[in-house]
Amino acid sequence: MIVLEKRPQPSQAWSLATPVLAVLATMLFGGLLFAVLGKNPVEAIRTIFWDPLFGEFAFYYRPQLLVKGAPLVLIAIGLSLGFKAGIWNIGAEGQYIMGALCGAGIGLAFYPLDAVYVFPLMVLGGAFGGWAWAMIPAILKVRFGTNEILVSLMLVYVAEQLLASMSLGLLKNPEGFGFPGSRNLNEYASATSWISQDIGMHWGVVAAFIAVIFAYVLLNRHMLGFHIRLTGDAPRAARFAGVRPARLILFCLGTSGLLAGLAGLFEVAGPAGQVSIDFNVGYGFTAIIVAFLGRLHPVGILLAAGLMALTYIGGEIAQSQLGLPAAAIQVFQGMLLFFLLALDVLTNYRIRMRMREVA
């Protein structure tokens, strides 16, 4: 009889090996999925993981890895702070949307003014929009003890409806011939976030690296970071150490919302270029995978976001060159989280074989 036996201490070796094993298992079972769809599994895996880095057009795809990974890093860094403290913000997608709406709204309000201060104001608006949306579950949890998982998740659907409403109403382009969507923010240079539009680099990439450094310093060199780690590892000891749960909840949810809002702003002012009904592409949910794949460590999140960005770009190449359906690529990405969570059990438990007792 196979049983799971709890380890006295979590295994450090399994903790480090789990992400690598999860990636390998995803490649294996993803290849089987592609084979069932009638595609060459080896060619499909090579197209997803090799071509964006070393293929014929790798010089174009490599900068896109940074652009695709930047919003994932920003959101995942914010989520990881809360996850470490046992505060579960599952609604980053809604905060991402609200940051984009608030930031884009400021930029469109100044149209057609081309001034250097427009984009900084958009950045502040995006950060405030995400922060304010995250403070709803934070305040409700602190004041009434509500479940932040349910509240933040339900607010995603509210944000999606607001996005559709704005695309069809208040932010709709009056010169767009009736089509939903706002004006193109890239039409006036000072209101965009591009560093180099030729290679697709924008200021969100810089913000992502700054967020990684900020989180690393906070968690390893600041008392607040110690309180975050202590609360997640030993909540009872944290109370004796003088940690104030209400303040920690407000900080963690507020910071994750702020970073998600910034990610939305940089995306709408950069690659997307406008507010549209289908603006959100699931970065807020994918960042959850990135956070856990990176073991909630800032540097690990940076590497995990690069891997996830690789599956995004490689998946697009596989769709165009091999004819793989988009749903298959999404299943492939979902497998990564499934295997990560499944194998992560071995960090805290070991498998034992026992003889079944006979009555």
From TrEMBL:
CDD domains: TM_PBP1_transp_TpRbsC_like. It holds the Pfam family BPD_transp_2. InterPro entries: ABC_transp_permease. It comes from the Bacteria. Keywords: Cell membrane, Membrane, Transmembrane, Transmembrane helix. This is ABC transporter permease. One of its GO terms (molecular function) is transmembrane transporter activity. Its main location: membrane. It is a multi-pass membrane protein. GO terms for cellular component: plasma membrane. It is found in: Cell membrane. The lineage of its organism: Bacteria, Pseudomonadati, Pseudomonadota, Alphaproteobacteria, Rhodobacterales. The chain crosses the membrane at residues 12-37, 65-83, 95-113, 119-140, 149-171, 200-219, 248-266, 272-293, 300-318, 324-346.
